[in-house]
Each structure stands twice: as structure tokens, then as C-alpha cells.
Amino acid sequence: MSVIGPRPPAHVLDNPALASLTGPHAHFAERRGRVLRYPVDVSPWLALPDEPEARDWADLAALAGAGAEVPLNGYCGDVPEDWEITFHVGGVQLVDDGLAAAPDAEAVRLGPPDVPEMLDLVGRTQPGPFLPRTVEMGTYLGIRREGALVAMAGERLRPPGWTEISAVCTDPAARGQGLAGRLILAVAHGIRERGDTPFLHTSARNTNAIRLYESLGFRLRRTTSFLAAKAPQRLTDGRAAVPVG
């Protein structure tokens, strides 16, 4: 007779938002029950427990607001049947596996005064969510040409021992010069200097970005999901769950 052993402990990168909001980014956390989120002007990431129950989904709806669209990035479980899935695309999580991390002489530190330019660059390049206070999540570096910000990259989630590289983008007129790769390695250098390991997420469809990241020294750790769902107007007990699929 076979015996099923204890379930292995989860890795912090399996639920990175939860690990971040209960760890180095705890000062950002807004909480209702076991559900945590970043302030809505900092990041759309929020954290469900590893195995959410009906009460957790009710708390999530109350925290987000009835009928609100809620990002569930990285969540791969079931969604209650009275929640409407509005977005679902495959993603990948990659981790440092030999990055040649190094500072970059042309990279400059970006901060709150640079946010209007950063938001403008993000709006033109669409690297993913970047909000008015996202810059507070960690170090952001940029490259300027003739005074204009043409490329940037920075830090987002902070699970213990790890830091996510995010908001990697380059103005279309400055592409093909290797700026994104240089900034990734410069941000990674700062991450390693404080003893953390870099990681990142991207869409599984973004094959060009995945090739760049792998060429720099990232390796695939796992596949994941970028998911959003609309909360119901009212919640009831005893709801069934439907697969994300």
C-alpha cells in the first residue's frame, strides 16, 4: 500500500505577492481577512492565500468593491462561479541563472520627480502596469538621451530573498541599441548587492522578451497565469468553484 507523504512546502515564488506583502513590502499591505493588496496607485498585484476559501473570495470582493475587475496574477486555482473571468493569458516566471550583472555608467536613478516621464514612456511602450507610486516599490534606473527618458527598468515584488525586475521598456526610436539588456543587468546588480536574487514575469506570448531574458542568463522556473475576474455584486455562502481552464 502506498502512503502519501506530507505536501512539500510552497516556494516563496509560487505566491510572490503574498510573500512580498507579508515580508519586505508589508508596509504597503492593505488587508481584509487573509487577503492583501498593494494600494491601487502603487501596484495592481494582490495576494490570496495559497488555497482560498469562500470567505477569502468574499473578503476580496469587499476589498475591491462589488462588481470590480480584480487582477489575479499568478493564481492558477479555481474561481467561484459567480465571478466572471474577464482576462486570462499564460505567463512565465524566470529566475537568475548566471546573469552578468553589472552597473551601467549611463544609467541614472529615477524617483518621484521623474514619474510623469516614466508614465509617458510606459504609455507608449506598454511593458505592463506602472502607476503613479510604483516607483516606491524599489530602485528604478533609466537612460536619457538629449535629456529625454528613452529606456527604464526597475524593481517590483519583493518576496524574501528575491526581487522582481519589471517595467522594462525602451522608446521605439531607441530600440536596437541594447538599452533594455543593459538596464536589466544594472538593476540585477543592485539586487544582488543587497543579497537578493533577481526574477521576473512576462507573457508566454512575448517570445522576443523571453529570448532576451534567456540570453542574459535567466531560466524558466515555471509557467503561470495573468488572470482578471469581475467580482459579483453580491456574494452568498456555499458557492461552487469553476476551473480557470
UniProtKB/TrEMBL annotation:
CDD domains found in the cross-reference section: NAT_SF
InterPro entries: Acyl_CoA_acyltransferase, GCN5-like_dom, GNAT_dom, YpeA/RimI_acetyltransf
Protein name as catalogued: GNAT family N-acetyltransferase
Gene3D superfamilies the record matches: 3.40.630.30
Lineage of the species this protein comes from: Bacteria, Bacillati, Actinomycetota, Actinomycetes, Kitasatosporales
Molecular function as annotated in GO: acyltransferase activity, transferring groups other than amino-acyl groups
Superkingdom of origin: Bacteria
Ranges where the N-acetyltransferase domain occurs: 105-233
Keywords: Acyltransferase, Transferase
